[in-house]
Amino acid sequence: MKSRTFKTPHLELPKLPWKGFLAGCFLIFFFLGILTANWAGQENLIQYGMLNHYYVGQLAYIQLDAGAYFMYLLKRRMRVFGMTALLAYTRFGVLMLTGVVSWYAFSLGYLFVNALVCMKFQGMTIVLLSVFPQIICYAAAFFGLGRIVFANKAELAMPFGISRLWRNPRLYLLLSSILCMISGIWLEAYVNPVLLQSYIRRM
Question: Residues 40-46: contacts with CB within 8 Å, 24+ apart?
Fold first, then answer.
């Protein structure tokens, strides 16, 4: 007797749309931050919130040592980024990257409500200025890590003939992300305080 073999259908799992996934996490936790701030109540935000006219007024004339501030931010920002970069090559990279993006989104949503309650639309402008222009570099840095974690081989193809110099596209993405992160820290230490103080003095 011939033995019969049963073939099970091969199911291909859909490709994870990682850009939309991270964007969705950002939006969800951004609104969760807004809801948490509203749940905290207006009185608590005014009493314990950092954004008030007295505190912001002090920022306008504070003398900041940009070099020391840069080193402080370098240690603080690179600690989280470095941990995320290390885990990006492991199975825990998805959780770490998603957690970092979600936490930043939650904090931003909470700060927006805090600023709106304490200082109206001027406070929201201050919050936006407090993350500009370094947010562009930070987003590019974590976008590079996102490609390392989620992207397939086709998306990791090196553009413009860079493959001749970089045979490992993930190493190229990692070094590019580190460069973007350091550039963002430099902007946050040297450029952002100038923009923020110039706006506050004109309020």
Answer: 42/117, 45/113, 45/114, 45/117, 45/118, 46/117, 46/118
Longest CA–CA separation in the chain, Å: 93
Residue among 60, 182, 32, 65 nearest 126 (CA): 60
Ordered alpha helix ranges (H), the chain? 18-40, 42-48, 53-59, 66-87, 93-130, 134-150, 169-190, 192-201
The answer to whether 41 and 113 are in contact (CB under 8 A) is no
Residue 78 is predicted with a pLDDT of 94
The average pLDDT across 178-186 equals 96
Mutual orientation of helices 18-40 and 134-150 as an angle, nearest 10°?
130
- pLDDT tens by residue, 32-54: 999 988 887 766 666 656 666 66
3-state SS string over 143-179?
A: HHHHHHHHCCCCCCCCCCCHHHCCCCHHHHHHHHHHH
Mean of the pLDDT values across residues 183-195? 94
Dist. CA 14–CA 1, nearest whole Å: 40
Over residues 127-136, mean pLDDT: 91
Q: Note the pTM of the prediction, 2 decimals.
A: 0.79
Using omega within 30 degrees of 0 as the cis cutoff, is the peptide bond preceding 133 cis?
yes
Average pLDDT over residues 12-38: 80
Contact present, 120 and 46 (Cβ < 8 Å): no
